[in-house]
Structure formats: structure tokens, C-alpha cells
Amino acid sequence: MRTDGSAFNAQQHTLTEVRVDLPLSDTQRSTIYALSTPPGKAGVAVIRISGPDALNIWGAMVCHGSSASKGKRSTREPIPWKMYKCGIVHPASGDSLDDGLAVYFKAPRSFTTEDVVELHIHSGRAIISSVLTALSHLPFARHAEPGEFTRRAFKGGRLDLTQVEGLKDLINAETESQRRAALKAAGGITRVRFEQLRKEIIQCLALVEALIDFGEGEDIEEGTYDLARLRVQDLCRTLEAHLADSRRGEILRSGIRLAIFGPPNAGKSSLLNFLAQREAAIVTPIPGTTRDILELSLDIGGLPVLIADTAGIRQTEDVVESIGVERAEKLVQGADVSLCVLSLPEILQQRSAEQFEVTIPPAVSSLIGRDTFILLNKMDAVDLTHIPLDHLHTSIGTEQAWSVSLTTGECTHAFLDNFAQALQQRSVTFQACLSHTDHVHRFDLLQEHEAHREEPLITHARHRAHLEDALQFLRAFLDYSSADVVFAAEELRYAAQAVGKVSGTIDVEDILDAVFRDFCIGK
What we know:
Elements: H1 5-10, H2 12-15, E1 31-35, E2 42-50, H3 54-61, E3 62-64, E4 83-89, E5 96-105, E6 116-123, H4 125-136, E7 141-143, H5 148-155, H6 161-172, H7 176-186, H8 189-214, H9 224-243, H10 248-254, E8 256-261, H11 268-276, E9 294-300, E10 303-309, H12 319-334, E11 337-343, H13 344-347, E12 348-350, E13 356-358, H14 362-365, E14 373-377, H15 389-395, E15 401-403, H16 412-427, H17 431-434, H18 439-451, H19 461-478, H20 485-503, H21 509-518
Parallel strand pairs: 1-7, 8-10, 8-11, 11-14, 14-15
Antiparallel strand pairs: 1-2, 2-6, 3-4, 4-5, 5-6, 9-10, 12-13
Helix pairs in contact: 6-7, 8-9, 8-20, 8-21, 9-18, 9-19, 19-20
């Protein structure tokens, strides 16, 4: 590995003569490269190179300074973090490939904590291909595997697992709410919150470990074990509050699963087309047109929503349609939010000018719950002059209802605005708290939720699984008395490890640090 400028110069004469006598394995070729920008025509493409031989690649392919115009490789080591205007040449033939920019990030102050070189070239398909092909001729370099640069950043301590997940979510973010949440995770805010939980568990473990190590013949403060129990009880309430969030963080990241259902020809596919602002679904007056589930990912009120249009719910002897109906029923039952579309001319029976009756098909009404949204379509086809809409919506059994005409567009924009607000309100509803039987404890959970209302801690199923494990170990600790302090300490150790798995930080030496830093042995 290069250690100084003289070594850098001494290696340059060998770089143009590529030896293939003994091919190196992928493990030996520890310097990796890849295109770091999306492929396709654009102004600039960035090729990233990381590893111990990154500077050797610079010397083999980069011409800058006075040598750039002559097409000669530079023999000077580049100044770190300085952008050079340069030419890019083939390492073996010396043929010019492109004119661009190059920058060198010196280890450990780089994304991967290794030496990193970035080549900023024109984003033409032929140019990118020629540079990547030229890099493949170097025996000590290989093409990076998916996510390998970020993996090296994690191994080098630049990122923890929550930041890695946040970085991926940031790249995949499609809505403003997703961007904000992912940016906080990638910036380390999520890591800090998980690390605070882990440190609090370690502090409790330090108190218990002190009783084990110094309990005999030493002056230990009375009530130390009781203090640890009180802190663990507080931790249990905190974890319970985070876990009782109705998966708000996961929904924010992956999207709200919305199922549109209803009888045939009610306007479900027309609604999907309205929301998508394009002809995403086939619309015909023939019942049973939609036979399978059609899914779209949309942004509604800044929230990511995965919308599924389903087959019309009805009794049918058609084998294919019956399969679609069965799938639709299962999808509605498993969705985060369901929206039932009904045709007003089909369900509304007016007995007089001011008296009416609403009849919903049994196959559909069985799927309508207290939290189901209702959309009454085709209001242009009925006379609503003497029927107050609020009265009509209440008669269906829900206040979460709207009347529209998807054909004429009447009231559709008001529906979209109100529906977006309802989804936002639903995303911050903590149903798990409301169903808790302990009213005092339930109030504590709600208070804890309010503190983290805008920043859900759990954004991945992996986080939830580890926190559930940690909570189980903390509850197991509370089941032990002070006579079983050794077993109790082991439960706390498991709890700390479970939380540490979220960020990938597990270090038993932290327990010793806490004992000597925060716990006073006294004398």
C-alpha cells in the first residue's frame, strides 16, 4: 500500500503494463469501482473508486495540470479534496476517453473511510462504458457489488445501520414526508435516539453489576436495586409507547395500503384514474371488467399511498371473477385504510321528497367497518335537492363519507382535500393505546406518543422486532428479586444487546465504562 509520494511515483511505470499471469481473486481485488449516478444521458456522470489502490488508478488514468493537454499521466500525488480539471485516458493504451473533473478523498475522511477517487465525466452511454471498461483492465480493481460502498462505510464506522437504512430510504423517497423522515435517519438522529435507549439500559445494568461485583465487603448505597427497577419500569413504558404506534413509521416509509372496494360499476376504477390523473384502469359499463388487483403508488397530501383497485364485490358464477372477488375481500381485510365506493342511484331509494332509504348490498356491507371511508358516486344521477348531504352520510353509519360525481367532476376536488386530511389524521392515530385496559398507563403512553408525534422512532420491521425483544427482557428483569441479581443482570444485558442490534452497535465494554464513570462506589 502507498505510504508517501515517492512510492506513488515509483509505481507509475508498472501501471501501463497489465500482467495477467496470475489473476487475483475478488477478495484480493479490494479496490472497487462503480457508476454512482443513474445511467442515461445527462450533463455529468460520477464514477466512484474506493480502496487501497484508488490512487494507483488516479495515476493510471488521470492527466491533470500541465500534462493534461499532452495526454500524459500525472506523476504528482493529488491534493486531497481538491477538484482537478483533467483528461481521462485508458490505463493500457493511453487513448483519451474523455475530459472531465477528478477529486481525491483521503482516508479516513471519505464516505467509505478508505481512499476514494471520483471521476466526473460526461454522461453519455459510450463514454461511461469506455471508462468502466478501462477500469476493468486493472488487475487490482473490480466492479462493486450492490450497496458495497455503503457497506464499507458501515464497517469503517462512518454509518450505523439506521443511517444506512435512512440513506437507502432517502434515495427511494417519493414524498415530502418520506424525505424528511429519511433525512433525519441518514443524518444520525434516529441513531442518537436508539443509542440513548441503550445507554439507559446499560446504566441500569451498571447499578446491578455493581451489586454483584462490590456487594460483599463494600459500602453500596442502599436502594440501588430498587433504583434500577424504577429506571427499568420507566424504560418499559417508553418502549411500550414506541411499539404502540400503529406502525406509523413503517407506513410513512413504505406507504399507506389503501384498498378501494365496492359493488360492480360503482366507479372504483374511475376513482383510481381520477387519483392517478391518467387512464390507469379500464372503465366500461360492463360488470366484472376489473377482475384482478391493480396497484399504484401515489402521493396524496404528502403521504405515500399504495392504492389497490379491486374487483367488484358480488356473488358470481364466473370462475375467474370469483377468484378476483375473493382476492379483493382478503386485500380489504389486510389494508391499512379502506375506501368503499357506492353508486348513489343503486343504494338510494327515495320514498318521498324528504324521505329516503339507503340499502347496501350485504356482500359489501360486511366489509365496511367503523374506520372505513365511504365515497358516494354518481350524485349527478339522483335528485339531492331535498336531502341534506350530512343527513345522507350519517344514515350510512359513518361521518367519513363524501358525495361526488366522477363523471362530471362535481365535488371531487373537495373530496380529495378532505380525504388527504383524513389520511394524515389517521396516520397519527394510536389505536393500540386506545385499546389498552389500564387507563393510567394508557395516559402515559399517549403522553409519550405526543412527545414523538412528529418523529416516529420505528421505521422498519427490523427495529420493531428488536425493541419487542428488548421489552421482553426488561419485563423478565422485573420478575426477579434482589436475591436473583445475577439472573436479573443477564436479562438487562440481553435487552441492551437487542437495542444495540438496531444500530449495529454492541459493545460489552460500555458496561464497565458506565460503572466507573457514573456509579460512585464511595470511599
